[in-house]
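Deviations from the work plan: none for this task. Representative record:
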Amino acid sequence: MNRRDFLKHTGFGLTGTALLSTLGGIRLAEAAGNDYKALVCVFLFGGNDSNNMLIPLDAEGYAAYNAVRGPTSGINIPQSSWLPINPSSQGGKVFGLHPSLASLQPLFSQNRLALIANTGTLAKPTTRAQYLLGGAKPDNLFSHVDQQNQWQSATTKAAIRPTGWGGRLADGVATFNAATTFPPLASLSGVNLFTQGAVSSVIAPNASSLKGFNTSAASMARYQAMRQLETLSSGNVLIKAKNSITGKAIDSLDTLTKATASVPALTTVFPGSSLGGQLKNIATMIAARGTLGVQRQVFFCSLGGFDTHSAQLNAQAGLFKDLADSLKAFQDATIELGVDQAVTAFTLSDFGRTFLPSANAGSDHGWGSHHLILGGAVKGGDIYGKYPTLQLAGPDDADSEGRWIPSTSVEEYAYPLVRWFGLSDPKVVLPNLSAFDLTRKDLGFMTGV
Amino acid sequence: MMFSIRSSLMALLVSWSLTSPAVSASQPYWARFVDQATFGPTPTLLDAWSTSDPEAWINDQRSVAATRYPGLPAFPSSSTQGCPDAETAATCKRDNYSMYPLEVQFFQNALFAPDQLRQRVAFALSQIFVVSGVKISQPSSLSPFLNLLVDGAFGNYRDLLKQVTLNPAMGYYLDMVNNDKGTTDGKIRPNENYAREVLQLFSIGLYQLNKDGTQKLGSDGQPIATYDQDTVEGFAHVFTGWTFGTLTGATPKKHNPSNYLVPMEIYRVNGQDTNHEKGAKQLLVYPGTTGQLVAGQDAAADLEVAIDNIFNHPNVGPFIGRRLIQALVTSNPSTDYVARVAQAFNNNGSGIRGDLFATVKAVLLDPEARSDKTVQVSYGKLREPVLMVTAFLRGMEATSDGILSSQTKAMAEDVFYSSTVFNYFPNPYVIPGTNLDGPEFGVESSAVAVARDNFINTMVYSRINSPATTPPQAVSGTDLNFSRLDALSANSDPSGLLDYLSAHFLQGGMTASMKSIITSALNCTQTGGKGPCTNARDRSRTALYLVATSAFYQVQR
């Protein structure tokens, strides 16, 4: 395990003097100092069934779970299999984590991991009665792509914002990154709305930077011609957009490749999974923060496969094990790098799933769901927000299938993270924030805010 | 009666007006058509420009025999059981438990099959009706589904929709197979997965559309939903009671063992569809129907009504039409263009709705597809990685064994492994910083952008080596054929080389500035300062690399 796993530098590096312009963004001196912070969004694509991630384990709570998701439901997890956790609030109740989240259980006890209950897209605080009367509700509830976009851009409208709240956050803290042109946003999971800023650019690290060039005169001439062609205007908007993406990609990947080549390899061992690899790459980029000259970074990575309409038990167990082991390794890596107080990871997902099982031992698209927040600056060991009443057609159900109406909005979830990141005016990032009660005492999951 | 006479007359007029140009007006005119209708122009195809006409070519393509995917044997569900021999297990698993053989066939078809239009349309359809190897484990399971699309590419949309619905790969992918009726205690209810996605992705989308593809707006100025949760549940109830086809000699069961080779069937006990939800069902509501499906019908009858209910929704023409335009021609068609294609879908000229051949023909022969591109700032589409790879290889008369899927996977288009039912890239997707659609930009990250360039680099300066195949193939790996370029590159004057690249890769659109920039990178060494350039291949490579990596090529116009 070494840095070559991260960026296989198989091509010939762009080291010629003519190419030095691509290094312009690097602040070579040790720069980041102590004021460094990173947010890491882990998106659980498909809609995580958090009804099988976190349940109350006391007799009454488990009975409510078992009444709907009993042994014949096809998606039952026996009471003895749940991993008990003891949140400081929630009335002293014992809760259970999914058995495959074993590597996260100790982090909860160490107060590094918190959960936030029943969170989702909301136009304003909404009760079941208001919902059933047709009150303000997010557009296209239960549709994957719409809900993903709404979670990522912090809106409830189908006409999505052109930027994500991660991107707007990077825009908002741009002064912290004034010393570099290296992108403050990085996606290890391709293009996504979350890391789309209005002005900040985003890098998607690749296994290699641009290949095929060397310092010969012919090669340098070809490289220069290539870069010149990028600047040719045709008037066509698609060509211009493609040129812009390519140009930034070549420059930022080259910068990153050089920067990560100079950092010591991490000793923390990550799972060999896709998510493990993504989080390892993020840790490596964080390790290179000094060379890159960044003081605020927003990362996006993802794990797919949560759309468990069928055969959910096995599928989700595998996903949760990957998620837990990868996050645990990431937490260890931030400790290894001495930045565990400066790095916070958190999950998002399309939606929760119906509490009522569907045919084929699965569950269908729901709404509110529980999420994980992890890091040294998290007030861990607790469950924040309001856990729903596990009752079909009960006070938290949007209908009769257990689609929980969120008791906490995406905005309220993001708010402590955004403030912790150092943004003075969170409304720039979360325009709909004023629709919610910011004096709520049950959402203070970050230290120092 | 009146209607059919009138529509026949219309058909005659349309047909007359479209056939009027006997041949292509110019090589760029033809090159542009070929870029849209095939997996990329080959020199041979391009050279035939002066005797070729788009409409005649489309008509010819209809009768070219379909190149189909092989029927593969079903293996045991456990790969350890199916591939017990330790020495051959890796190859055995690749060939029988991954989509690999289908990917190879796909690229061979794309590069070399004569039924280019059918293959290209089938590929477009595979990105509307998405089934993925992320969930389907055996290629034998997916192959019949791919053949449905190849066979149905020029057929009727309703037939295709029904076949897709009853295909077991789709059934397994979106959980219609073994979808039980709800339990009497209400503790389990029908699965909503196929019900939701068939509406949102395969047919009508989320909002009511005008014929030109724009959203209808309600009195509040907001788009109007095409369906609600009750409708999803109605369709979920329709799609109950089906299971895999009963294997020969087996006793039918409520949940038959896997069988991907024949359509799904209804589980019956003494002829009764006992696993079908019998209650009344809410289907789509639109002018002409209240969407009420009466209680008590047989599962087969319910399915026919439901398919008709979707098929006749006024959204299908503009929804599917726009997708096909975006797949073949341009990401931002005008509303008039969409309306003309929707009209062809709604009525092929003979009173038939859903004729995909007529729809594709309307897409490709539309004035907006055939007119001059240079004036339109929003015209064209970013070549998706697969189409970039195939067009580049066809343009360079490459030899290939078709083992190319790892190349496009590195560019976020993992053939037959779409990460979700939402396809390799999202649609709609607005290109950041613009107000234009560009679905292919939805995966164009910095990693993908550089991966594209690195693919071109590999092909131009090296080759793709393939693992030893069993049995050995006549062709192994993928190589470009430089003979045409090298002949031109020997000339110290690069204009012949650049004109060739312009004609074959840029539809004749290489500007003087582009020529000048490329020329600056072309160094010619001659023996004794005279005669042909001794480094002709270097010149070919430099010029080809610069053209193919440029946005002028990566964006198809």
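Residues 2-19 of chain B form the longest helix (18 residues).
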